[in-house]
Amino acid sequence: MAVAEPRTTTRRRTPRVDAIRNREAIVEAAAEVLAEQGAAVDVREIARRSGVGMGTLYRHFPKKEDLVHTVLRRDFMTWAESARQAAIDAEDPWAALTTFYQQALTGYARHRAIMENLALTLAEPDLEGIHQLRLVIEQLCARACATGLLRPGVTTDDLLLLLVSLGHAVQITDECRPRMWNRLLHISLDGLRADHREPLPCDSTVAGVSAP
Amino acid sequence: MAVAEPRTTTRRRTPRVDAIRNREAIVEAAAEVLAEQGAAVDVREIARRSGVGMGTLYRHFPKKEDLVHTVLRRDFMTWAESARQAAIDAEDPWAALTTFYQQALTGYARHRAIMENLALTLAEPDLEGIHQLRLVIEQLCARACATGLLRPGVTTDDLLLLLVSLGHAVQITDECRPRMWNRLLHISLDGLRADHREPLPCDSTVAGVSAP
DNA sequence: TCCCATGCGGAGCACTTGCTCCGCATAAGT
DNA sequence: ACTTATGCGGAGCAAGTGCTCCGCATGGGA
Question: Which of A174, B28, B52, B209 has the highest count of CB atoms within 10 angstroms of its CB?
């Protein structure tokens, strides 16, 4: 069964080399453009930058969404990987947490398409890379919590929402007031420390608002 | 000179009543739609809701931008006014600050067009309403600072950026995790209190990673 | 070298959206 | 009632964008 027919129905198993090259060029160009301009970009711009025609682009990625997802999965994976590494290298749990935010906000908050989709970490982390990132933050949270440095009751979702929130602040201030967000980060991190009088409101951690 | 010509060139000083009615209907409908869907909405939708034709809409507001600005000015003014009132009513400066954030995030973070434009408070507060809102926050900041409750070095811009940042968090979590942002607000407000060891980084540098 | 399955390019279609144009309706002054 | 400046409606234009179609080029097996 697994024997390939010799001549009549020669199914090619591997794509042609130019097709592979083109596919990579498309992803590369798309990554650039998505980082710069977000997912609302014109598909023609991606085709232009990758030196490829529309037909080629749409054969490799039948929907714009397919291309966007491919790129986002790749970039989120890269991010998660580097974040995990940085977290491992860090001396103590608290340093790991602060370093993570610093790195994330310095390096990835400029990636517009990533920031646009980061909110999905909270709703539906279906994209593989997003899930990986979530796992890293979960670990950071657990470690900082275990050492008693993190304010009791702070959850992974809190840290994620803070990331999304600050990511937006970075995008807003990036051009007109560079690194102004750094002050906000300090403020938020201090609010995350354990030395506070009152506990956090457990408002609706689990969709809490009482049902009608 | 100021005498109006009697019949040949009767310049009407006041517009026709139906024109006034239409204009108001347009603004009303636009305010609704902009709050729900943001400024990227189709102009036809506004015309439809206000029961008016495209021609009418574009005579009153030659550019879509004109209509949007008119609505935003109105809504920002309303917001600033109610915020000012609430701040005056508050018992102490800190309560005024927390109440402001609560009210802003509960009531105005759902206004999509307002949130989209709130970032302008930091860059170019040319819209009159935005400037008014900035003044309110300036007062809140000054009062809380004077009583020593606010962390030294915190500026009006910090409070504004926090507002923008949290506003985004509200929009993100509004549907899937209602009021989850409340926890983030508590964290941030605690970070704003005066009882912290280290001072805030004075804007740029700090941030560890050395400049080239 | 020859052949053809596989892949390529980009004009063009379908739809959206900001804005205009112009024939028709009517408020309001006489 | 009559007139007309003022205002109205909505079809339609122009530009942008996702996606398709089809004639042509070519990698790679023989």
Answer: B52
Token couple for A22? 């083109």
Q: Mark the nucleotides of strand C covered by protein, meaning any atom under 7 Å from a CB.
A: 5-12, 16-22, 26-30
How far apart are the C-alpha atoms of B131 and B126, rounded to whole Å? 7
| pLDDT, mean of residues A7-23 | 76
d(CA B11, CA A85): 75
What CA–CA distance (Å, rounded) separates B61 from B27?
10
Q: Phi/psi of residue A13, each to 5°?
A: -85, -40
Residues B149, A193, B189, B135: is their CA dihedral positive or negative?
Answer: positive
Query: Beta carbon of A74 within 7 Å of strand D?
Result: no
| C-alpha to C-alpha distance for A37 and A71, rounded to whole angstroms | 14
Contact B177 A119 (CB under 8 A): no
User: What is chain A's Cα-based Rg?
Assistant: 22
CA–C1' B53–D6 (A): 16
Q: How far apart are CA B61 and CA B26, in angstroms?
A: 10
Answer yes or no: are the C-beta atoms of B25 and B36 closer than 8 Å.
Answer: no
**Nucleic chain C contacts, Cβ below 7 Å:** A 10-12, 15-16, 18-19, 22, 51-56, 58-60; B 6-7, 10, 12, 16-18, 40-44, 54-55, 58, 62-65
Instruction: Encode pLDDT of B141-182 as tens digits.
Output: 999 999 999 999 999 999 999 999 999 999 999 989 999 999
Strand D close residues, chain B 5-24, CB < 7 angstroms: 10-12, 15-16, 18-19, 22
| pLDDT per residue as tens digits for the range B7-37 | 344 456 688 999 999 999 999 999 999 999 9
DSSP A71-98: HHHHHHHHHHHHHHHHHHH-SSHHHHHH
Domains of chain A with bracketed CATH: 18-62 (1.10.10), 67-192 (1.10.357)
